[in-house]
Amino acid sequence: MPISLVVGSAALIPTALGIALRNSLHPAAKFVLAHIAATGFAVSLCTNDYCASKTTRLLGKNDKGQIALWGLALMWPFHLGLRLRLRWKRSITTEPLYNEILPGWYLGGWPHDASCLPPGSPAVLDVTSELPRTQISGEYLCLPTWDTHAPVVPQIEQGVSWALAQRSVGRNVYVHCAHGHGRSVLVLCACLIQGNHAADYSEAIRIIKSRRPRVKMNKRQNAAFQSWMQKRQENDTSKKTK
Predict the structure, then answer these.
(1) Residues 222 and 110 in one domain
(2) Residue in 92, 4, 90, 89 with CA at minimum distance from that of residue 44
(3) Which residues touch 95 (CB under 8 Å, ≥6 apart)?
């Protein structure tokens, strides 16, 4: 389900409570409910298909993976709800946080602590806009992308080039989003194809699913991948004609 619909629907709850209890609530409680609702509606609006690629900094995350204090202060209802939901989903799943897809290539969810990273001090390719970097040192690249959305083609190209450069010097690479099912899968598919580990999408996703069966890209992510493939083919054709 699109994040805009999920968060927008959730924002209706504090809105309804605030309206229903407007005559009995303390002003501070009214403010809190209003803040929670406003945060939800803001995220819902900014994650629609027309805005999502332009609003990935809304939560305060920068290129280093850090979430600014203003982002935590203004958007705390979303950050809190997200962490609680993530912890709950982790508590009920039997899926490991990450899997090694091919030697040196890891795919998975957000590592809530540096100790959760794959072995070998991997270079981390983070495809989230909502979760902070957890390791203090090491190679890191953030491609900020909203949940259920997809990085745009220039981001995919940047991520692929960076990841292949890390592998070329012998570093392991960990590609992650929140759960390791969608955004990160798209980027890893592109990496496997560009790195000649897979001939096409079908082979790349087969390799990934053989090690992490629950991965599944949505329509947005499939469309973004096809756009990247088309751009790649155009670049290859252009090189051949020169």
Answers:
(1) yes
(2) 4
(3) 212, 214
